[in-house]
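User: Let's play a game. I give you a shape written as tokens, and you guess the letters that built it. Ready? Here's round one.
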């Protein structure tokens, strides 16, 4: 079957853990988790597939993971290195298709419609996999469909290093039997709400007749999300990629955790990783923002809290933005709070190339000193090549004995003598 659009979702397998294994091959085949700890507390950011066999997963508290696997290897994340590897992968992706939309540090959408001949999209996906493995050393999984949402779900069906399709005509056999938790944008709390409504599988949602009493009952609980989730469950989604990023109103990242967090250090650790992701997305898109919005939710689907703060300058720097978010967290936090969901959005955006910060007197002094040093080095190099002091700084001119080269006795000879000598040869 021929499709109007062929969309790939590129998903780097256990990305942070893979990078750490590349840096230290002795970690391979050992259970590894990545995350930030404060006072031996924190939330796991990601883990390798060996650790996942013990039931460990992203968003799990460290203390629970160590109970499941006492010999777990913990590594602090090095986001600067992850960014370098991410860019290497995305550069290759951009070579394979000019239509690319980065979704996160380890995920991107590719429109490969014009690259596919005779429906050989699986061959093209494997070509991308092999190229990234050979040139970067990382394995990726690829989901293929005619829209972004279905391709996203397909990318997780044959991990790691897998390729799978999920076209609209395949959803009844591949998608509908899956638990509702596997539907795009369904988190733990939404799963619980849906289960309470007797929606256990994706098919249970998809097969509710539209405009029926049952549909309205579910919509009463889910609100605006009902229409979006219902469409995805029935194979509908976005066919167009956002490749310009010119009209972005915000850059955001959110995460739902498997258990409530009651501890301040756990929340702070988890929040710092979300800020890392937001700043990476902003930098990748060459954007800087001036306002942050910090949102939390507890286990109840509607118990949310939102705080906003506007800076006195535009920034996409992690250290600066994290310092502002930490202040918000400190003001908001009180003992007894519980957190299941965290979100950070950076808004009031501009192209980072147009950021202009006021230069201080100290900055001007430093610039002047640097220019003087560079200028003197250039003049010294030129005079060495000429064999005499042919170039001087303006303010030093009166102190220089002119034409120190004894072969040159007048300004006239400087201008004509060399030329006439060459003519005689």
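Assistant: Ready! My guess for every position:
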């Amino acid at each position: 079957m021929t499709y109007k659009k062929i969309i790939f979702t590129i998903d780097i397998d256990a990305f942070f853990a893979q990078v750490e294994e590349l840096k230290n091959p002795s970690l391979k085949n050992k259970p590894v988790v990545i995350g930030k700890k404060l006072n031996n507390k924190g939330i796991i950011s990601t883990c390798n597939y060996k650790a996942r066999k013990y039931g460990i997963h992203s968003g799990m508290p460290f203390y629970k993971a160590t109970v499941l696997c006492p010999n777990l290897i913990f590594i602090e994340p090095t986001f600067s290195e992850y960014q370098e590897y991410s860019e290497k992968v995305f550069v290759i992706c951009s070579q394979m298709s000019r239509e690319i939309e980065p979704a996160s540090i380890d995920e991107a959408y590719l429109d490969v419609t014009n690259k596919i001949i005779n429906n050989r999209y699986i061959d093209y996906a494997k070509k991308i996999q092999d190229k990234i493995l050979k040139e970067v050393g990382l394995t990726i999984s690829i989901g293929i469909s005619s829209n972004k949402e279905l391709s996203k779900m397909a990318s997780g069906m044959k991990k790691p290093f897998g390729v799978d399709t999920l076209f609209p005509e395949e959803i009844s056999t591949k998608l509908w039997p899956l638990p509702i938790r596997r539907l795009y944008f369904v988190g733990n709390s939404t799963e619980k709400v849906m289960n309470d409504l007797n929606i256990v599988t994706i098919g249970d949602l998809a097969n509710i007749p539209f405009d029926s009493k049952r549909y309205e009952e579910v919509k009463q609980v889910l609100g605006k999300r009902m229409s979006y989730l219902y469409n995805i469950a029935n194979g509908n989604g976005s066919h167009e990629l956002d490749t310009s990023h010119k009209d972005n109103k915000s850059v955001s990242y959110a995460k739902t955790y498997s258990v409530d967090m009651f501890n301040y250090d756990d929340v702070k650790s988890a929040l710092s990783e979300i800020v890392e992701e937001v700043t990476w997305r902003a930098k990748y898109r060459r954007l800087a923002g001036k306002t942050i919005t910090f949102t939390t939710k507890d286990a109840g689907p509607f118990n949310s809290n939102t705080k906003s703060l506007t800076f006195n300058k535009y920034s996409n720097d992690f250290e600066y933005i994290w310092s502002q978010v930490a202040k918000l967290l400190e003001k908001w936090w009180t003992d007894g709070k519980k957190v299941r969901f965290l979100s950070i959005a950076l808004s009031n955006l501009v192209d980072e190339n147009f950021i202009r910060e006021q230069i201080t007197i100290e900055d001007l002094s430093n610039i002047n000193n640097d220019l003087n040093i560079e200028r003197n080095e250039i003049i010294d190099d030129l005079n060495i090549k000429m064999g005499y002091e042919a170039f001087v700084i303006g303010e030093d001119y009166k102190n220089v004995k002119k034409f120190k080269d004894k072969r040159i006795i007048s300004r006239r000879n400087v201008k004509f003598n060399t030329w006439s000598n060459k003519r005689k040869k």
